[in-house]
Amino acid sequence: MNIPGYENKTFGETLIEAAEQVVGHLENKRKLRVDTVAIEPIPNYTPGMIKALRENIHLPQSLFGAVIGVSKKTVEAWEAGTRKPGGSAQRLFAEIDHNPNYLNKILQIHSTQP
């Protein structure tokens, strides 16, 4: 698990420890640790921003759609402003925008010699 303080424990060990902490808290024997997580707001990519992002990574609409799991028609609609991408697509746009190499994990370009 990638939870601070639990790196070397199995899921079962972590679950048992958490249950023991809850019981201790209910019996007023211990205070629970409270962790807070800050989540960045979902970005709002406009049609022009989506098109600029796609063009910046040099992909046609069909390939861009295939890479992110939507059809070419969906990409066309986003870029035309007739449909708005959902939150998960918006977060993916932000990841691609901040790290264009992110797509290298998905895109595997193979050249063939004539």
Mean pLDDT: 85
Number of strand segments: 0
Principal-axes geometry comes out as elongated
The fourth-level CATH homologous superfamily of the largest domain is: lambda repressor-like DNA-binding domains
State the end-to-end distance.
48 Å
CATH class of the largest domain, please?
Mainly Alpha
CATH topology category name of the largest domain? 434 Repressor (Amino-terminal Domain)
Tally the helices.
Answer: 5
Number of domains: 2
Tell me the fraction of residues in β-strands, as a range: under 5%
Helix and strand string, N-terminal first? HHHHH
Helix-strand category: mainly alpha
Residue windows where pLDDT falls under 50 for at least 5 positions: none
Main beta sheet strand tally, sense and closure: none
**What CATH architecture of the largest domain do you see?**
Orthogonal Bundle
Helix content: 40-55%
Q: What value does the Rg take, in angstroms?
A: 22 Å
Brief synopsis:
With 114 residues, this protein is mainly alpha-helical. It has five helices and no strands.
What does this structure look like?
- This protein has 2 domains: 1-38, no CATH class; 47-105, lambda repressor-like DNA-binding domains (434 Repressor (Amino-terminal Domain), Orthogonal Bundle), CATH 1.10.260.
- Helices cover 48% and strands 0% of the residues.
- Helix 3 (61-68) crosses helix 4.
- The chain contains 5 helices and no strands.
- The radius of gyration is 22 Å and the shape is elongated.
- It has helices at 11-26, 47-56, 61-68, 72-80, 87-98.
- By secondary structure, it is mainly alpha-helical.
